[in-house]
Prior knowledge:
The chain is 36% helix and 29% strand.
Amino acid sequence: MAFDLGSLLGNKNPLLVGLDISTSGVKLVELTQVGKNELCLERFASESLPRGAVVDGNIENIEQVSEAVRRVWKKSGTRAKFVALGMPPASVITKKIILPGGLSEDELEIQVETEASQYIPFALDEVSLDFDIVGPAQNSPEDVEVLLAATRKEKVEDRVAVAEAAGLTPTVMDIESYAARAAIDRIIAQMPEGGKGQIVGLFQIGAQVTHVSVLLDGQAIYEREQPFGGNQLTQDIVRAYGLSHEEAESKKRSGDLPEGYERELLEPFLENVALEVARAIQFFFTSTPYTRIDQIFLAGGCAIIAGLVDVVADRTKISAAVVSPFKGMQLAPNVREKQLRVEAPAFLVACGLAMRRFDR
């Protein structure tokens, strides 16, 4: 599901990169297609953002964010000027509606706007609205199921302004959770029997928020956000060692911290993450008819912390793995494999956004 921000000059698969803007930083991915359904990772790069530049998914400082976008674009070495961007799920209203089949595009638009006005708590002229035909309605095949998505125009305009200030042309505006799902669907397809019938829990642990998606046969059967992320560990380091937020973040990544850090701060934090995951799974069980999860995938910047996957598996008694969205892809000669192995789990959304190049 994506807000299309303009035609790509009639070119089927023009050079388009995925650009993920999150609280902690900006990530860029460029993919190409090689052979039938084979993807190649051409480039990936990331740049951190100053604290407060993006808060709760809102861009608070357009200048700082566009400067980071400019740096990440230059660092990556890409020539692409078209970008696919993502909106945080919390700022987008999505709703599935049933409409009569056989409507023209114009008739569909009118019907969607009429329906949307019932669900959206803002005036329609303040909203960016898009829709996608999912397919025939389950109980009435002559009708169609339509997914509509709406967000405040100003939120779209902020992201567009950031990209344009960096000299780029935003072409697709996706929803971050849908982009992540596009990337994880590739990974699930590589499971035995293509993951058919497997209930997969995806936990994207970001700086401030953990996004939970539970997937079954290509459909999200449960989604939730929990206010918990890697910033908690950063704050613990700040308090324990009297460092600035930036110093704490840097030392957290490099592991350059005093003796006792692992026992006093890291281990309790990992236990906390595992507890949050277990709690989210219990919420899933109590609010849906489902009573099992077969596989947990961890993604996001926190997923790469050594030992986390074992603590989660131990706490939940469910098979757990750190996910790389680039698994099974070819790698271009200039991609640094060692760096990729460390950073890949944080690129799930950027990878899904980059895959939009092949949807057109």
